[in-house]
Amino acid sequence: MSRGSGCCRASRRSLGAGCSVPDAVRAPLPRGRFITLEGGEGAGKTTQVRRLAAALTEAGLPVLRTREPGGAPGAERIRSLLLSGGNWDPVAEAMLHFAARREHLARTIQPALAAGITVISDRFADSTLAYQGAGQGLPRPVWEQLSAVALEGFAPDLTLILDLPPETGMARAAGRGEPDRYERLGLGFHQRVREAFLAIAAAEPARCHVVNAARGADAVFADLRAIVFARPAP
Ligand SMILES: Nc1ncnc2c1ncn2[C@@H]1O[C@H](COP(=O)(O)OP(=O)(O)OP(=O)(O)O)[C@@H](O)[C@H]1O
Ligand SMILES: [Mg+2]
């Protein structure tokens, strides 16, 4: 049979009894995009993740909204440990974050991306570098080693860093009720976290965009939306 003739040419895969579909139909979906929102307490991450997910859904894209720590059953159990209390050794604490992240990646993020779904995560690995690194003194090489083991080179396609003075964010977060363990840490801690996020953005300008989050939620969303819709899929 000459190439390209009939229903069984090399570019088609057999469906059994003489039927076939073009490779273009059977080919895996293009990988979805992995977008992360980062920033300090009360920066508006959860608010904006919801709005971005709604905008992408409205544009016809399949979207999964998720969060860290958490985003998978085992990871949510680790979240409870981390946020409720405990006097963790900084390396142990970072290991818990990366254990949760590995579960999140393997069970939630990667399957969704492989199915062509855009995944938006409320925090990811940059938060561990900012909070446990700059905030709690975890050495960067330890973060890098844990990251290499847990993520195996995986990284977000796009990271939106919501930047604002920690005093403003803490005041917003305080309005929500009982503070979690990280919210209870002092202003100096949160200032170091802010500076760490800005340093990450400066070091990785192709991945990271800093957005002024000290404005109203509509203005912040307009900037985020423009950045997300301007970026092509990977
Ligand atoms: N741009 C904004 N201006 C004023 N208030 C805001 C803005 N964005 C969010 N808020 C409010 O501030 C509070 C914190 O917002 P949100 O929970 O989205 O922040 P977050 O970054 O997810 O905080 P956390 O790090 O604690 O999870 C909420 O009550 C929210 O309604
Ligand atoms: Mg939140």
Automatic annotation (TrEMBL):
Coiled coil: none annotated. ATP binds at residues 39-46. It comes from the Bacteria. InterPro entries: P-loop_NTPase, Thymidylate_kin-like_dom, Thymidylate_kin_CS, Thymidylate_kinase. Residues 37-221 form the Thymidylate kinase-like domain. The keyword Transcription does not apply. The keyword Nucleus does not apply. Its EC number is 2.7.4.9. Keywords: ATP-binding, Kinase, Nucleotide biosynthesis, Nucleotide-binding, Transferase. One of its GO terms (molecular function) is dTMP kinase activity. It catalyses: dTMP + ATP = dTDP + ADP. It is an enzyme of class 2 (transferase). Belongs to the thymidylate kinase family. HAMAP family: Thymidylate_kinase. Phosphorylation of dTMP to form dTDP in both de novo and salvage pathways of dTTP synthesis. This is Thymidylate kinase. It comes from Plastoroseomonas hellenica. The gene is tmk.
